[in-house]
């Protein structure tokens, strides 16, 4: 924001020297420091990204050829299920929470998160959730194999006894995200520096505030859904069992009432990151700041009335199908406003193509592509053909991989020098970007075609006519997976050393986070900064 | 600044939303009842019919199927019947437990097209109760129903489908 003070503070200079972090493992276990916890979240998310990615490699290896070669169909189903769960709850959501922990206090001039002890707790229960989930894969009967959407009766009547582990893992993940979200809201509402009025908030903070409200509204509904699955399976209730007066279709209503806001939980913070990076490297103010805030809010509100577009084929009445079709299409209006604003920000800017900007531009193009395929899926009569095909897989990977993940990469490259005090290896990072960009499209673009041609998703084998496309998709998949190891190398090397960077790492960057030294001192803004 | 007031409000929202997930269960039933969506007919005994529309004839067919693995054979004596709206009609079903164990059966009705569900009224139905069937036992069940005179004009035929479940295990579990 241009309104914040331009004067450079040297935070390290008036840093009082006490409260240094403890040494060793205890520093991380007992920490209540938002920067430590942010780093923990980000490292955890990267680990989960690699584990979930390894599962995707198993899926693509099996699908390289038609027929069954490498894994049993039941194991294949476990891979698709756990890949989805890990990427959604283990990679994307903790990455955004990590970025929020690191950046929100720095961006609003707060000394730390509002509830630091709860912050520690909300991170440290997360690894246990995923240990439980991953451990179930090694138990007799295997892990969850009913898809990450755990539709009843697949997760009730037809699931194995380890389903309880899945349920408890999801409970813990939910509690963790709810605590994280509460912390973000309290921090933003109560700890803004004097003069930081609502319409001066950086957009990343705005989008995260709205995301946090979505989280506390829908994560409890997910907890309710898994609890009903638990009691249906183990305690003879009949929420989703027609024999006892329940209804399996109701499961889908409850799940997607959570599930659709959930997809915006995974993309709104991405919008915030892109809205931060594009102005920096266009050297212009963000075009239409206020409209960005209103667009984000309207996307969040609309997300509560579109859930049944996931259920067009369940036999809804025509009136319902039309309502959910039009409501869904309405979301493209505020989303279009955002894309338009980013392009308008770049228009006639003096653009330079640093690595964060490369990822951001790729985000704008490829996320929009994923948005368009979403618009196609929203058309009820067309959805009857697309439903449960690879077209859907292509759609949500474009919005989640080239959308959410690319924005996280962009954010990581953008703030990594601020976190470490070192510039990353730009050559390697550019290799990471270009390899990712090419391979991600080789991986996901042909999925549109095999999907339109009728290849169903979540199937370990397929008809012979899809063989060539699937081989190409798998090659793209392996290339994309390997390219991400470059990211690990870049981050690791950057943490170890590199060219020292000044407080304001990028010359076009604006905001309070660039007024503290690089690397950001352990304690910042102990006296609130002055915002003009 | 004290964070407690805001924190309390946010926690209340979370608890409220958890309760809301469970409130969706009765809400869903009420919604289906009011709108007649989802082809979910009432499992309550209906009131007697008061008038008969002699001018219309509705074709009602019956179909039953046992949910995977349920050891029951249930079939209506007539494949379909023609009724006048408002006129009472009795249909007999033959049900057999094909296993060599005592079982409890629950039939769940569904009406197609879905919008006709709230216009099919059952006075007596074996689906109102859980039906214990001894090993190999064969019994006759009665369905007494009528079609409402308010049935939309464009519906000329409807299908009453019964899905039959084996609920012996659930009964043991809840005892």
From TrEMBL, chain A:
<feature type="transmembrane region" description="Helical">
    <location>
        <begin position="286"/>
        <end position="310"/>
    </location>
</feature>
<dbReference type="GO" id="GO:0004129">
    <property type="term" value="F:cytochrome-c oxidase activity"/>
</dbReference>
<keyword id="KW-0479">Metal-binding</keyword>
<dbReference type="GO" id="GO:0016491">
    <property type="term" value="F:oxidoreductase activity"/>
</dbReference>
<dbReference type="GO" id="GO:0015990">
    <property type="term" value="P:electron transport coupled proton transport"/>
</dbReference>
<dbReference type="GO" id="GO:0020037">
    <property type="term" value="F:heme binding"/>
</dbReference>
<comment type="function">
    <text>Cytochrome c oxidase is the component of the respiratory chain that catalyzes the reduction of oxygen to water. Subunits 1-3 form the functional core of the enzyme complex. CO I is the catalytic subunit of the enzyme. Electrons originating in cytochrome c are transferred via the copper A center of subunit 2 and heme A of subunit 1 to the bimetallic center formed by heme A3 and copper B.</text>
</comment>
<dbReference type="GO" id="GO:0005886">
    <property type="term" value="C:plasma membrane"/>
</dbReference>
<protein>
    <recommendedName>
        <fullName>Cytochrome c oxidase subunit 1</fullName>
        <ecNumber>7.1.1.9</ecNumber>
    </recommendedName>
</protein>
<dbReference type="GO" id="GO:0006119">
    <property type="term" value="P:oxidative phosphorylation"/>
</dbReference>
<dbReference type="GO" id="GO:0022904">
    <property type="term" value="P:respiratory electron transport chain"/>
</dbReference>
<feature type="transmembrane region" description="Helical">
    <location>
        <begin position="163"/>
        <end position="191"/>
    </location>
</feature>
<feature type="transmembrane region" description="Helical">
    <location>
        <begin position="469"/>
        <end position="492"/>
    </location>
</feature>
<dbReference type="InterPro" id="IPR036927">
    <property type="entry name" value="Cyt_c_oxase-like_su1_sf"/>
</dbReference>
<feature type="transmembrane region" description="Helical">
    <location>
        <begin position="428"/>
        <end position="449"/>
    </location>
</feature>
<dbReference type="GO" id="GO:0045277">
    <property type="term" value="C:respiratory chain complex IV"/>
</dbReference>
<keyword id="KW-0408">Iron</keyword>
<feature type="region of interest" description="Disordered">
    <location>
        <begin position="1"/>
        <end position="21"/>
    </location>
</feature>
<keyword id="KW-1278">Translocase</keyword>
<feature type="transmembrane region" description="Helical">
    <location>
        <begin position="40"/>
        <end position="61"/>
    </location>
</feature>
<keyword id="KW-1133">Transmembrane helix</keyword>
<feature type="transmembrane region" description="Helical">
    <location>
        <begin position="391"/>
        <end position="416"/>
    </location>
</feature>
TrEMBL record, chain B:
<keyword id="KW-1133">Transmembrane helix</keyword>
<dbReference type="InterPro" id="IPR023471">
    <property type="entry name" value="CtaG/Cox11_dom_sf"/>
</dbReference>
<dbReference type="InterPro" id="IPR007533">
    <property type="entry name" value="Cyt_c_oxidase_assmbl_CtaG"/>
</dbReference>
<keyword id="KW-0186">Copper</keyword>
<feature type="transmembrane region" description="Helical">
    <location>
        <begin position="7"/>
        <end position="28"/>
    </location>
</feature>
<keyword id="KW-0812">Transmembrane</keyword>
<dbReference type="GO" id="GO:0005886">
    <property type="term" value="C:plasma membrane"/>
</dbReference>
<comment type="function">
    <text>Exerts its effect at some terminal stage of cytochrome c oxidase synthesis, probably by being involved in the insertion of the copper B into subunit I.</text>
</comment>
<dbReference type="Pfam" id="PF04442">
    <property type="entry name" value="CtaG_Cox11"/>
</dbReference>
<comment type="similarity">
    <text>Belongs to the COX11/CtaG family.</text>
</comment>
<keyword id="KW-0735">Signal-anchor</keyword>
<dbReference type="GO" id="GO:0005507">
    <property type="term" value="F:copper ion binding"/>
</dbReference>
<keyword id="KW-0472">Membrane</keyword>
<protein>
    <recommendedName>
        <fullName>Cytochrome c oxidase assembly protein CtaG</fullName>
    </recommendedName>
</protein>
């Amino acid at each position: 924001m241009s309104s914040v003070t331009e004067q450079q503070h040297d935070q390290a200079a008036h840093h009082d020297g006490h409260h240094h972090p403890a040494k060793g493992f205890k520093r991380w276990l007992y920490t209540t420091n938002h920067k430590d916890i942010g780093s923990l979240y980000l490292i955890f998310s990267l680990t989960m990204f690699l584990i979930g990615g390894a599962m995707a490699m198993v899926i693509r290896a099996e699908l390289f050829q038609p027929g069954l070669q490498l894994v049993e169909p039941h194991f294949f189903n476990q891979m698709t299920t756990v890949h989805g769960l890990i990427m959604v709850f283990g990679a994307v959501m903790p990455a955004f929470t990590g970025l929020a922990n690191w950046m929100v206090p720095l961006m609003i001039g707060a000394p730390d998160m509002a509830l630091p002890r709860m912050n520690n707790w909300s991170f440290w229960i997360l690894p246990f959730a995923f240990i439980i989930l991953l451990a179930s894969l090694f138990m007799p009967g295997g892990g969850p194999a009913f898809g990450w959407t755990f539709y009843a009766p697949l997760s009730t009547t037809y699931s194995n006894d380890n389903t309880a582990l899945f349920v408890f893992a999801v409970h813990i993940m939910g509690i963790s995200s709810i605590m994280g979200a509460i912390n973000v809201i309290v921090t933003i509402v109560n700890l803004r520096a004097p003069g930081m009025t609502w319409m001066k908030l950086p957009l990343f903070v705005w989008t995260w505030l709205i995301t946090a409200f979505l989280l506390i509204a829908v994560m409890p509904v997910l907890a309710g859904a898994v609890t009903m699955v638990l009691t249906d399976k183990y305690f003879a209730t009949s929420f989703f069992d027609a024999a006892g007066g329940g209804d399996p279709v109701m499961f889908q209503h409850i799940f997607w009432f959570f599930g659709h806001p959930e997809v915006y939980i995974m993309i709104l913070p991405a919008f915030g990151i892109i809205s931060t990076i594009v102005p920096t490297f266009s050297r212009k103010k963000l075009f239409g700041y206020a409209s960005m805030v209103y667009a984000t809010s309207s996307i969040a509100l609309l997300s509560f009335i579109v859930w049944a577009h996931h259920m067009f084929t369940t036999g809804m009445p025509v009136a319902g199908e039309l309502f959910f079709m039009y409501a869904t299409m309405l979301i493209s209006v505020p989303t279009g406003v955002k894309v338009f604003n980013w392009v308008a920000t770049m228009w006639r800017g003096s653009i330079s193509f640093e690595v964060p900007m490369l990822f951001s531009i790729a985000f704008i193009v490829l996320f929009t592509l994923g948005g368009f395929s979403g618009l196609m899926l929203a058309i009820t009569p067309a959805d009857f053909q697309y439903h449960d095909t690879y077209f859907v897989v292509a759609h949500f990977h474009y919005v989640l991989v080239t959308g959410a993940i690319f924005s996280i990469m962009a954010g990581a490259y953008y703030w990594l020098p601020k976190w470490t005090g070192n510039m990353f290896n730009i050559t390697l990072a550019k290799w990471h970007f270009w390899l990712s960009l090419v391979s991600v499209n080789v991986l996901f673009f042909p999925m549109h075609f095999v999907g339109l041609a009728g290849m169903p998703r979540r199937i370990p084998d397929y008809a012979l006519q899809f063989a060539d496309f699937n081989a190409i998709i798998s090659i793209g998949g392996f290339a994309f997976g390997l390219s991400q190891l470059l990211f690990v190398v870049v981050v690791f090397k950057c943490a170890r050393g590199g060219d020292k960077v000044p407080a304001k790492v990028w010359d076009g960057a604006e905001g309070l986070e660039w007024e503290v030294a690089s690397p950001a001192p352990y304690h910042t803004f102990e006296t609130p900064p002055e915002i003009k | 600044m004290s964070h407690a007031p805001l924190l309390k409000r946010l926690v209340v929202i979370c608890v409220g939303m958890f309760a809301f997930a469970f409130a969706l269960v009765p809400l869903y039933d009420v919604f289906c009842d009011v709108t007649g969506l989802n082809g979910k007919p009432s499992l309550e005994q209906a009131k007697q019919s008061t008038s008969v529309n002699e001018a219309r004839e509705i074709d009602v067919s019956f179909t039953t199927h046992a949910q995977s693995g349920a050891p029951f054979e249930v079939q209506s004596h007539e494949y379909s019947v023609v009724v006048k709206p408002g006129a009472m009609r009795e249909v007999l079903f033959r049900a057999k437990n094909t296993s060599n164990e005592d079982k409890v059966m629950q039939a769940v009705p569904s009406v197609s097209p879905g919008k006709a569900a709230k216009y099919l009224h059952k006075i007596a139905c074996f689906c109102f109760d859980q039906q214990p069937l001894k090993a190999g036992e064969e019994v006759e069940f009665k369905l007494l129903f009528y079609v409402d005179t308010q049935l939309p004009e464009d519906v000329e035929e409807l299908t009453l489908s019964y899905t039959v479940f084996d609920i012996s295990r659930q009964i043991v579990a809840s005892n």
